[in-house]
Task: structure prediction
Amino acid sequence: MSKSLNIVSSAPGIIEDIQISKIKYSQNPLRTHLSGVEELVDSIRANGLLQPIVVRPKEVDFEIVAGNRRREACKLLRWKKITCHVVNLDDKQAFETSLIENLHRETLEPIEEAQAYKAYVADFGWGGVSELAKKVGKSASYITKRIKLLDLPNDVIKSLYETSLNSSVAEELCSLKNPLKQSELADLIIRRHLSLRKARELVDHHRGNKVDFTFDSSIEHSIRVFDKLILLLRVALNNIGALISDNEDEWVVREVLMYHRNMIHQQIDLLIKEKRKFDRRLLALNFSAPKNFRDGITVKNIVKKEEHEPC
Result:
């Protein structure tokens, strides 16, 4: 049983069918948008409402504690009433229940989670970071790192919402104090699809730590694959050439070997052309980065002039 259900079950409550029109959203919503409602509509249509939504009574209506998506799905299904678990919770208990419920279901975006922690600790003053950490089953350092995400520039926060930047990388950017540098690095990390390890190296490099940073991007990996394949085919050409020399009197075998040698020649030419495309893309990425990121950073395998050497 989740902690949120423990909070609810410990409070006096009743199960009641309540008019949807009397059920209002929370005055302190944790989520800025409700996702996955259409899938929930299909599930409720097929299986019914498997779990009542949790509400608390207000002066003239009821406020949702947990179950905003279920309420919205039932409304789209044109239900008149919803089965609710009605409990008496104060503002703090209602907020804690809603927060733990959303964490348990993993429905909060990193920024929404950070905003909830900040609201609990700073805006409402309901407790410190350590107390909140115990209630939600997280470490104090986890809570602190999440709250720090709110200090990032708006464009970086937008990237977090759009999931083009993950929260672990964003936490690394928090160690930089300059918002402009945070934005530039975030853009660079997104465009080059850098892993968490490479993003951490980039941040350390920019902070002045002596880290030998290289952009080991997927493009560079592709270039290395082309280099290896071209080398293997050239070795094959040499081996076929040796076989041709050993079978000068066997004209049928010689013709077959000559045909395949020519085919390999053509394949090498095609691979070199494809590799040059990746070379140009890597070069374009390098020079599209801000100058202060290019200085002192080694970018491997930029453009190498490939010449086909006859074998």
The longest helix spans residues 251-288. Residues 152-206 form one domain. The radius of gyration is 30 Å. The longest strand covers residues 13-19.
